[in-house]
Amino acid sequence: MTQAADVILTNGAVHPLTNGETGAPRAEAVAVKDGTIVRVDSAYEVDFLNGVETDVVDLEGRTLLPGFIDAHTHMVMVGRYAAEADLSGVADPQSCLDLLANQRDESEGWVLGFGYDESNWGGDYLTRDQLDNISTERPVVAYREDMHLASVNSVVLNGYQDQMPTGDVRTESGEPTGVLVEDALDVLWDEISPDPAGMREYLRAAQDEANSLGITGVHDMVRQSHAPRVYRDMDMDDELSLRVRINYWRDHLDAVLEAGLRTNHGSDRVQVGGIKTFTDGSIGGRTARLSEPYDDADEVGDWVVDPETVRELVEQVDDAGLQMTIHAIGDNAIELALDAYESADGERHRIEHVEVVRDDLVERLADDDVVVSAQPNFLKWAREDGLYADRLGEERRTASNPLGTLLAAGATLAFGSDCMPMDPLFGIDQTVNAPASGQELSVTDALRGYTSGAAYAGFDEDRLGTIEEGNCADFVALAESPWETDDIAGIDVSMTVVGGDVVYDARE
Ligand SMILES: [Zn+2]
């Protein structure tokens, strides 16, 4: 006798995103028992599992997909955006300053803003003088969207400049402009890190935000924070409505090794991922490491971590049986990552971002057992007259983030947002409607990057990423079919389900 289901989601257009996905719905309903999918079928067939205690959710014709997995995110940042001044998408400096002034009035201590993007206006970073208008008594910091650069006021410079590497404090005629890059930011980061209780508030806010965007799992990049402990606290208290995979920053490697943590250790909801390092910086900050100079400056970018250190780290991480994940944006950096992985024995080492790609690197990325952890949303900067046109020039702009070319060549793609913004449908829209054909993916392939592709990057392909019997009951219900609209980014998320529990419902 078949047991009754705990939950039935019915009257939907179910897309399992398994092989053979055509964009036409392949089932109407799913049944869930103990958090696992036990039937994917017609509404009629699934109704046989409807018992007296079964919760039945009427999808009212909506599109049901596997839940989105954001393979590269920073949940503390998402929480910060929710709790501090959110400068993302702001069109002019004055509006940034207005938001920072509001934040000043509503808070004590540090006045923080996150996510500004000077390419929205003339390209000038916020300055010390502008931020001195917010306060001359409290420290003020406005982080650029990529977090590799921040603008600060005089209070910050007076208090911390002597602890910062001189080369990372930008000056004009010998005077600091208020613009800080890379290692100069570390000092500030320590100062503004929340305690465990504060972290729990940030992570709760970030989790709510993720669920509202259809996200059921994240690969979180953590560094010097209470997040790993707080996630486990939340897991024990049954407060996690996300599956969290923790990628530890390289400065935690010794601690991870000593504590006996290894990739894939963990619970149903919190798992150990890999060890992450930078190699280079960002295109926006002209710190991504290129083989040819930037188009708008006679520079080739920086090694944020020197190549020899990266090679040694990969060897150590690989020998320990941990997954490695390397931030590499410029073509030189991508080449370094591939070289470093050449002698690795472990599987599924990852390269994060993979933006400035040469033809010879496409081949290597396709041939090697490496996961390309890309951000389709970054194609927003690859538009005509966009940031990448300025920084990289025409040829490298249209060759950047070549997701279609990489997939066609046989590369393994996993998609994440890097929280710019943390919105899978926005990213999917960007690659489906990409500026150049090599950057373009079909709707199905783009969705797979955010589902089965991301699941694979997290060794989760046997339980996540597709709607199949035996998999975890993680779903997103969309108000419209992404195969049948020109505005994928504009589709409303109707409902998010994790382990059979409705964790977000737009109707409430
Ligand atoms: Zn990142």
Automatic annotation (TrEMBL):
<dbReference type="Pfam" id="PF07969">
    <property type="entry name" value="Amidohydro_3"/>
</dbReference>
<protein>
    <submittedName>
        <fullName>Amidohydrolase</fullName>
        <ecNumber>3.5.-.-</ecNumber>
    </submittedName>
</protein>
<dbReference type="InterPro" id="IPR011059">
    <property type="entry name" value="Metal-dep_hydrolase_composite"/>
</dbReference>
<keyword id="KW-0378">Hydrolase</keyword>
<dbReference type="InterPro" id="IPR032466">
    <property type="entry name" value="Metal_Hydrolase"/>
</dbReference>
<dbReference type="InterPro" id="IPR013108">
    <property type="entry name" value="Amidohydro_3"/>
</dbReference>
<dbReference type="GO" id="GO:0016787">
    <property type="term" value="F:hydrolase activity"/>
</dbReference>
<dbReference type="InterPro" id="IPR033932">
    <property type="entry name" value="YtcJ-like"/>
</dbReference>
<feature type="domain" description="Amidohydrolase 3">
    <location>
        <begin position="55"/>
        <end position="504"/>
    </location>
</feature>
